[in-house]
Amino acid sequence: MGINIRRILPGYFFLIGLILLASCGIRDKKWKGQAPLERVETATRPIQYQLKKTYAVGNGIYLSNEFEGARLNGVALTGKNEVSVLITPENTPINESPWYAFKIWSDTPQEIQLKLTYTAGYSHRYYPKISNNGKTWTRIDSSACHPDPAALNTKESPKYCTLDLSLTSDTLWIAAQELIVSTDIYKWAEQLSESSFVVTSDLAKSREGRPIKIMQIGNPESKKLLMILSRQHPPEVTGWLAMKAFVERLCVPEDSLASLFRNEYCIYVVPCMNPDGVDNGHWRNSSAGIDLNRDWEAFNQPETQAVRKFMQEKILQKHTFYFAVDFHSTFEDIFYTISPKLKGNMPGLVPKIIKTMAKHIPGYDPNIRPNEKDALRINSTVSIFHSFHAEAMTYEVGDDTPRELIKKKGELTAESMMELMLSGTTTQNH
Ligand SMILES: [Zn+2]
Fold first, then answer.
1. Before 93, cis peptide (omega within 30)?
2. Those residues with Cβ within 8 angstroms of residue 162's Cβ, 6 or more apart along the chain or in another chain
3. How many CA atoms lie within 13 A of 423 on its CB side?
């Protein structure tokens, strides 16, 4: 008896169809990323500064925003044992990334509910972090964190979030993400600069006069360059943590891969593009009230102008930028890349880095979103690709991505990049 192939064949096709449908379904579930870029005005706009003060709210409770990176715009006792804080942006319209950071304490030990509220039209985004010293942070216990219940089981973001807090006379710090301001970033850069192959210097000054520092890592004689950027957007601390791990991996002393790479290339890092925004606790913008990552075409602002001028001078000296990466944060991990149809100075490098890195993380299928069109050249990576032909990507880290995973991915991305850029295969395959 032979097998009736005609009878079983439709079944096979049905099965294959189901598998295809399922795999498409899985692909469709991936987050498609933020809305496409839109050209916006980047001429200076007014911003609202916070009133910096210690608020005596009543019942012996105090709150303060008198530190760098703080954001607290109003406080009131709104019920028995309930304190409400108001968090407002530097100006509007603005991307929904409401940053908050403040200190709170009480004359006498007491339990309170602290309600985080925002300007009308904006919602709660960042899961609260808590600290006893402003340096080491933990996520507040989930049993003590109560987002607006009206948003439960809906696609809406909560309008407010209430925290159960035990206050004492010891200062408690509450913040949207770990508090890492420009002085912390520059302290980190100075520590790395203790190595002979890292030199940190001032590139320019921000609008408010804060230093914009640049780190030079590797062989200063090399004409093969990289550009690494971070903190254009102040609350994007997880992006900064990824950049820190990435850069630290490049700087491991006496590591054979890193040593070879540092000998072959010279890496430039601007670890804090927007020190004014970071230190003022802004939601998004610079002290010019504009989104710096939309100013890479008009170049109206000193921060973007400084990086462009630096890169242009290197090109005049016959240097070549092969790779550029700008670290950011958003709702989930995602990589925004240049259209694969466009070839820069090392074609194919960026997707290879991401895929090589991902192979080392079991079960990880990276979300890569290439620009479908030769899009507007208003953000850093698209602009750097078109002006300097550096293979470029925007490396986005989720707000809640576990910090250990951020570190691991940052290090693995650096390793994959170093291996690929040293192998030279990327240039020959395309
Ligand atoms: Zn960003």
1. yes
2. 113, 114, 115, 116, 145, 146, 147
3. 13
CA 289 to centroid of ligand 1, rounded, Å: 15
What is the distance in angstroms between the CA of the first residue and the CA of the last residue of the chain? 53
Domains with residue ranges and CATH for the chain? 54-175 (2.60.40.3120), 182-425 (3.40.630.10)
CA 272 / ligand 1 centre spacing (Å): 12
Q: How far is the CA of 233 from the centre of ligand 1 (A)?
A: 5
Q: How far is the CA of 284 from the centre of ligand 1 (A)?
A: 8
- pLDDT for res 14: 46
**What per-residue confidence (pLDDT) applies to 28?**
52
Compute the distance from residue 403 Cα to the ligand 1 centre, in Å. 18
Q: Cα of 328 to ligand 1 centre, how many Å?
A: 4
Whether the Cβ atoms of residue 292 and residue 286 lie closer than 8 Å to each other: yes
CB contact set of 132 (below 8 Å; sequence gap of 6+): 170, 171, 172, 173
Q: How far is the CA of 347 from the centre of ligand 1 (A)?
A: 25
For residue 278, give Cα distances in angstroms to 63, 143, 399: 20, 30, 16
- Identity at 108, one-letter amino acid code: T
CA of 23 to the centre of ligand 1 (A): 30
CA of 37 to the centre of ligand 1 (A): 12
Which residues of the chain fall below pLDDT 70? 1-28, 373-375, 425-430
Evaluate whether 228 touches 243 at the Cβ level (below 8 Å). Answer: yes
Task: Walk across the sheet containing 54-58 and list its strands.
Answer: 54-58, 61-64, 101-106, 172-175, 129-131, 138-139
CA 250 to centroid of chain Cα atoms: 19
CA of 397 to the centre of ligand 1 (A): 9
| Structure letter (DSSP) for residue 330 | E
Q: How far is the CA of 147 from the centre of ligand 1 (A)?
A: 24
C-alpha of residue 329 to centroid of ligand 1, in Å? 5
